What we know:
Elements: E1 18-23, E2 32-36, E3 64-66, E4 72-80, E5 83-87, E6 92-96, E7 101-102, E8 107-108, H1 113-130, E9 136-139, E10 144-152, E11 155-159, E12 163-168, E13 173-175, E14 178-181, H2 185-195
Amino acid sequence: xxxxxxxxxxxxxxxxxxxxxxxxxxxxxxxxxxxxxxxxxxxxxxxxxxxxxxxxxxxxxxxxxxxxxxxxxxxxxxxxxxxxxxxxxxxxxxxxxxxxxxxxxxxxxxxxxxxxxxxxxxxxxxxxxxxxxxxxxxxxxxxxxxxxxxxxxxxxxxxxxxxxxxxxxxxxxxxxxxxxxxxxxxxxxxxxxxxxxxxxxxxx
Length: 204
């Protein structure tokens, strides 16, 4: 599965891999898979692709996306709220709808396919370097979510003090002196609780 990582150059993100929820010690639950987490958009906003991009345009799944010179950038995989997931063939990145203008052949953005892929690669590297044990994690509104307890390969263990969840590094965005994720602490804890199997009934 491809993953979503916030880009610093534009408000992009790579699609998040599943959250692996683990109960805190003593809770008696085993690791399970929770609903997907989507990395938040970076603080910067992608430059508008023309005057019409001041307001959301009608971007829909299946549309081909072009750059301003008419080159193909990719296709719209899906639209979630105010974010469209653009598939370039190499990366799946999320762009705010305000980054698109409607051209004669379909949606247009002001980055080429190579620029989008390069930005995705650079942002992924920057974020991965920022995800370290002890790093504080907040949600996109600035609310405290928890801290990174450990990092193993492409995953980080996030401790909310109530649960510990394993997230792909691409689910985080580096911001200021810490990290952000798109889910609140309550949402992460609810997802972990929902994905934890109920204890087996005692046999009589």
